[in-house]
Amino acid sequence: MRSGKPRLIRQLNDRSVFEAIEEMGLSSRAQLSRVTGGSAPTMAKAVRRLRQLGLLDEVGLSSPDGAGRPGRMFRVAKVSSQVIGIAIDYRYCRVTPAGLDGGYNHENIITIKTPADYRSLLRDLTKAVRKLTADGPKTLAMGVSVPGMIDKSDGRVLLSPNMHCLDGQCVGVDLETETGIKAYVLHETLASCLAEQSYGLAKKLEHLVLISVMEGYACSAVVAGQLLEGHDGMAGEMGHIPVDLNGAQCGCGNRGCIETMATDQSLARRVGERLGRRIEVEEMADMVSAGQIDIRQDINETLAYLAIGVASAVNTFNPELVLVASRMFDFLPGAFDDLINQVRQRSVRPLVNRCRIIRSAGDKVQGGVAAALRGLKNSLGPTMNWR
Ligand SMILES: [Zn+2]
Fold it and tell me: Which residues have beta carbons under 5 A from ligand 1 (an ion)?
């Protein structure tokens, strides 16, 4: 019991100092002491531990106040260490190295055509991770964005509506076994939302919702600064709310879910029905940009359902910001403004009047990176409001 408390205090200190450096950027120990209220020896110990764990880069000397002895400066590691972000998706998977500031270079992303079976998927992802970790900075963790519900207790995928080869698999544990690198797995929606709040357009906002309809229908929320995970880490399956009782079959087993009506895939299905053949989003995009098809009517139908989804999220979560990711806005000029107008009509007025709605790039690999960094920070200790 007596050894327990000092350990907790040390953990709280380490995490607070790391989060302070994350927020301040380049920092000296003296600055950190001032900001977090920690004593100089406490700060020195915390910085030393974080250095030993590979979480900080030391970047020269500086005397930021122009007074006193120049002190060593630190920032979150971008050179000495890295994390790996992985986005598993049903058509393509992407794997990227990233700094501990969440930044990554698009040129370094490895893209893999998603294999049909789990063994091949594991093999291809392992190969990519090995390639990115063979030399260079030390790899501290991997984060995996998974298109499915994950059991928090053992990391098992319980259901992946659009990628059933993942059902029942412990993809994080398996990747960890293959590569020897700690893996943190998160539902893709939660991961993307976390990424927007940690490193993206919604940085540090307390109440936000992300809706991505680029692959399936994903909706997730940050409430009071915390990612809303639910009891089992599965919150945010708003895509499976039925909006058409006799609608198309959905991957979840039901019919007429909003996922079957309001997504980029639903748009492709509508266009395909009109053309009398199956068409993928990519091909549809090419045909639109070549001026070969007019899909205005199909987009309007799809947006009408998306507006119901966005309005439901506004009404449910009372967010200050909603981010929406879809390729539909690229296909038709003015489509995003149309969506906003429809959302305003369908939401409860006082709620929507105070809510901004903007586009998100819906970058899932950033979600993988965010999952890795959250896992790393949680491994330091519990968070504490040091401000
Ligand atoms: Zn469904």
Answer: 240, 250, 252, 254, 257
% of the chain exceeding 70 in pLDDT: 96
Which segment of 317-321, 327-331, 360-364 scores lowest on mean pLDDT? Answer: 360-364
Instruction: Using the mean position of ligand 1's atoms as its centre, give its distance from the Cα of residue 323 in Å.
Output: 22
319 alpha carbon – ligand 1 mean position (Å): 24
Residues 353, 372 share a domain: no
Domain with 12, as residue range(s), is 4-76
Contact between 125 and 132 under an 8 Å Cβ cutoff? The reply is no
Note the pTM of the prediction, 2 decimals. Answer: 0.83
239 and 168 inside one domain: no
Cα(345) to ligand 1 centroid in Å equals 25
pLDDT of 226 higher than 50 = yes
Question: 201 C-alpha vs ligand 1 centroid, how far in Å?
Answer: 29
Report residue 10 CA to chain centroid gap: 29
* CATH code, domain with 120: 3.30.420.40
Residue with tokens 């998706």: 89
Are 197 and 203 within 8 A, CB to CB? yes
Residue scoring higher pLDDT (361 or 146)? 146
